[in-house]
Amino acid sequence: MSKILIIAEHDGKELNPSTAKCASCAAAIGAETDILVLGKNVANVADSAAQISGVSEVLLTEADYLEAPLAANWAVEIAAAASSYSHVLGPSTTFGRDLMPRVAALLGVNQVSDIMEVESGSTFRRPVYAGNAIVRVKVPDGTTVVATVRTASWPTAEPGGSASVTPREAASSPAAHTRWIGLKTEGGERADLQTARVVVSGGRALASADNFELVYRLADKLNAGVGASRAAVDAGYVPNDMQVGQTGKIISPELYMAFGISGAIQHVTGIKDAGTIVAVNKDPDAPIFEIADIGLVGDLFTIIPELTDLLD
To answer: How far is CA 102 from CA 79, 153, 194, 278, 296, in A?
Structure first.
């Protein structure tokens, strides 16, 4: 009998929307779905998970060593909980990409990455070659499916559920070879890139880290997340946790604004699921205009301040 376990992503205080997107993928598979919440003092996160439509039960495992989302600790706990499930799903976010391969290794199976479409409980479709091709992946019968869900391809499951929350004892112990030091982010108080409704991104054309302040000011007016192209990251204008694209973060905001980004294929892969794409570039032949819903040829150093002023 098919039964799905979703691994909840959270920051210790709030449930990440990626979990509800995994629930949409689980609904497409069409099996009873539970959510596993790991952490410390995260009963409120479990309560939020219980409200996701289609969820039958939320398993809550709390322990001191599970407080930080350390894959070396969490994966062992997930593998211990997985014996009753045919599918174990996690989001294809930085969190899921770190965690789920280790879970698959502990269970002795191959991981299915970036599920974007479900054909059956064992057959899935996923993008390859920077999204230029879609392949069908079939998991052998009787094999536990451990997979990451391409969150950009799935809607957020609606709230309205009333699942029960069941405490579950930790079945493992802290990893002896790995310890948590801390978490540092350069993102400040701005909206998270992978969940923001609006994202404003800048490219190498901004020419310096100081000039990125133009992008930050516009983003603050829009309450938007801030991203960057790989070229801008490689040039040192911004930290690499802001990179959008195949080797960065794949996002699907309602509005994506790209300033001075040429539109390399690896960047396009990360934004193609956005609702509306707005591109500003002084090169009328920039590839970004081929996918943009709205394109403006012009100098970003003039256009960004004008847009920012209009939002006052």
So the answer is: 9, 24, 22, 38, 45
Tally of helices (H runs) and strands (E runs) in the chain: 8, 15
Q: What is the pLDDT of residues 77-120, one digit of tens each?
A: 999 999 999 999 999 998 999 999 999 999 999 999 999 999 99
Query: Selecting from 3.40.50.620, 3.40.50.300, 3.40.50.2000, 3.30.420.40, what CATH number does the domain 3-167 have?
Result: 3.40.50.620
Can you give the three-state secondary structure of 216-239, one letter per residue?
Answer: HHHHHHHCCEEEECHHHHHCCCCC
**Strand pairing of 133-138 and 123-128?**
antiparallel
| pTM for the structure as a whole | 0.85
Per-residue model confidence as pLDDT tens digits over 23-64: 999 999 999 999 999 999 999 999 999 999 999 999 999 999
Q: How close are the terminal C-alpha atoms of the chain, in Å?
A: 57
Q: Residue 182: which residues within 8 A CB-CB, separation 6 or more?
A: none
CA distance 275 to 221: 20
Tokens 């699942």 correspond to what residue? 163
Cα–Cα distance measured from residue 39 to residue 57, given in angstroms and rounded to the nearest whole number: 17
The count of residues in the chain is 312
The continuous run of DSSP H or E covering 305 comes out as helix 300-310
